[in-house]
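Task: encode each sequence below as structure tokens.

Item 1
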Amino acid sequence: MDDGITPRDLKIETLKEGLKGIRKRYLECASSKKKEICYAVAANELVSMFGSLMPRVLHDPEVRYYILYGVDQLLVYDADTDRIRLTSIEEAVNIILNST
């Protein structure tokens, strides 16, 4: 991944552990508090985890699904099932546009 200043190599296992932990804390929080508060806490954890790379991280409002995009690859991750896939942007677009 590249934040425009310095390219960085991120370890997949470290990413999975961090994102899975954020999802777990979100679910624990959401069981007793408003989801908006829990989302704010999760968003803060994502910023802490990714820093200047945060604009290259997409996620759903409940921080279960993630897409991290680099120069030529996407990392797609489901924090509940712990499933991950690396794919090219071209392949992802073709899959999405041809799935109906």
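Item 2
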Amino acid sequence: MIALRWAVKEPSFTETKWRWQEVEVTAEANSAGTTGITIARTVTLDPRALSKTVPAAYSRDTWALELRCEDGPCITEEVTSIVTENGERSFSETERTTSRTHLWLFEEYQPRDEALILVRRAIGAAPR
């Protein structure tokens, strides 16, 4: 059996800094035991640095916004991966990267619609 859970946690949005955490948990159970992988991705960016074009996308069976930087890398991701086997942590690693794009995934329509309003406001697009 394989299970997947995904959520956005601790969102914070100001005029100069957006920050949120994306947590993805995958677990598998079989006759040998259980293995779980938790990936916690903390995303930080200055919305003023976004491109004036923010395309919608469909990725990993969910809706997404493709955040792009206008000039150079402006999106920082700190990714922590934790592997547990039979309930005990067997591996943990944290990596920090800066990039020009990020797919902001949404499981539900309401958070996606709220993000669309935030993005439109940040890039100076007229409200609908």
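Check on item 2: The mean pLDDT is 88. The CA atoms of residues 47 and 122 lie 6 Å apart.
End of task.
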